[in-house]
């Protein structure tokens, strides 16, 4: 079964681009100059930002559902990101190089299954989770810090 990985829509984040550090701080957002790679995974382009680029760290509600699993966490967004990642049957490098927690949710926003995978084990786990017809989508999280990585849907 084919799967699709999508980065976040940049539109909700564009209001932060170019603001002063003080204006960002007033909204709970912190600007970082990227100094290591990997280390700052952008959730729009689904790439690790390069040293010298600017990352915005903010809280993001990635699971806005009316269930006990409703959730938000810290994410990085590349300042100026304008085109979301969108690919079928491809695990982006930003996911491939990290241990992921993959959580399969039903249409009500309840977790039906979850497991850990890294590297070449990620795609097979996605396929295994989607063998359950009740899993509507998968959320990927970076296992070490727990941050939301991205949405995986049936293609």
TrEMBL record:
Pfam families: DUF1203. InterPro entries: DUF1203 (IPR009593). It comes from the Bacteria. This is DUF1203 domain-containing protein. It comes from Gemmobacter megaterium.
């Amino acid at each position: 079964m084919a799967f699709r990985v999508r980065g976040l829509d940049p539109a909700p984040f564009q209001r932060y681009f170019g603001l002063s550090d003080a204006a960002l701080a007033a909204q709970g957002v912190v600007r970082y100059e990227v100094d290591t790679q990997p280390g700052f995974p952008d959730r729009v382009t689904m790439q690790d930002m390069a040293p010298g680029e600017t990352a915005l760290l903010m809280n993001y509600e990635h699971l806005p559902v009316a269930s006990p699993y409703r959730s938000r966490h810290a994410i990085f967004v590349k300042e100026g990101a304008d085109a979301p990642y969108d690919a079928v049957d491809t695990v982006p490098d930003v996911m491939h190089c990290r241990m992921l927690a993959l959580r399969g949710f039903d249409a009500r926003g309840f977790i039906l299954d979850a497991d850990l995978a890294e590297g070449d084990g990620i795609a097979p786990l996605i396929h295994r989770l989607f063998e359950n017809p009740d899993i509507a989508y998968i959320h990927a999280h970076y296992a070490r810090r727990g941050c939301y990585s991205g949405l995986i849907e049936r293609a």
